[in-house]
Design brief:
Structural class: mainly alpha
Number of domains: 1
Distance between the termini: 32 Å
Number of helices: 9
Largest sheet: none
Order of helices and strands: HHHHHHHHH
Strand content: under 5%
């Protein structure tokens, strides 16, 4: 789930040029996104390196689902209350979310070989960088694509829920294939949307809006990585 509707309708005047507003805002967004990925990676590595922690989390269903629900809750709060949250509160929520994500995907480090996780991460980073650059630089509006991708995202979520109860290799392949397409498109779409956000956000709230922008790109990256890993990853024996 990603915060796709957080941009105010009207642009706000600024003493800075449009290019300066966009550049400053995007530096903050990508800085926070990288920080979130670093927190996730360190948390996942720490959990995966402790068999006792892994057993405690993944054999305790209430605890695991509590972590998942907490993640969704944080996304909803950041998306719905971006105009009211202080930069410090938004930053704290984002870091907590990144750490929780590291906990819930730590099993990936155990299910797949370290080499395949690393190579898939590099492929994801390369794809993400190219798509984000395209979304930022292109003058072609991706709004129509965004509506299509959002419907695709809903389909992936619903299919994933079905896949939790109906284990089928064919279904998992289709979900993964569509997931890669959806998050490939969302990366470019969100990157373009952030330019509009930079020009439309209220003065004095750059910090909280940068966190929400970082969260959107963070979610795109994490999901693209996980779906690609199903194709490129080698499972441990």
């Amino acid at each position: 789930m990603a915060p796709y509707e957080v941009v105010p309708n009207a642009a706000v005047a600024s003493p800075f040029s449009s290019a300066e507003r966009v550049s400053t805002f995007l530096r903050s967004v990508y800085g926070w996104m990288c920080a979130g990925l670093a927190v996730t990676a360190m948390t996942a590595w720490f959990i995966a390196s402790s068999p006792a922690l892994v057993a405690t989390i993944f054999t305790n269903r209430p605890l695991f689902w509590g972590l998942v629900i907490a993640q969704f809750g944080i996304v909803l709060v950041l998306s719905a209350r971006v105009e009211k949250l202080s930069a410090s509160t938004a930053s704290l929520l984002f870091i907590v979310y990144s750490a929780l994500t590291g906990v819930t995907i730590s099993f990936v480090l155990l299910a797949y070989t370290g080499e395949s996780v690393t190579s898939t991460f590099l492929v994801t980073a390369g794809m993400f960088g190219g798509l984000a650059a395209y979304g930022t630089a292109t003058r072609r509006s991706l709004d129509g694509l965004g509506q299509f991708l959002f419907m695709g995202l809903l389909g992936v979520v619903l299919a994933s829920l079905v896949g939790m109860f109906w284990h089928s290799d064919g279904l998992q392949f289709v979900i993964s294939f569509i997931g890669v397409i959806v998050f490939t498109g969302l990366t470019a779409y969100d990157a373009q949307r952030l330019k509009a956000m930079a020009l439309a956000m209220p003065e004095g709230q750059t910090g909280s809006y940068a966190i929400v922008g970082a969260l959107a790109l963070y979610l795109d990256f994490i999901n693209l990585f996980l779906f690609l890993l199903r194709f490129l990853g080698n499972r441990r024996d």
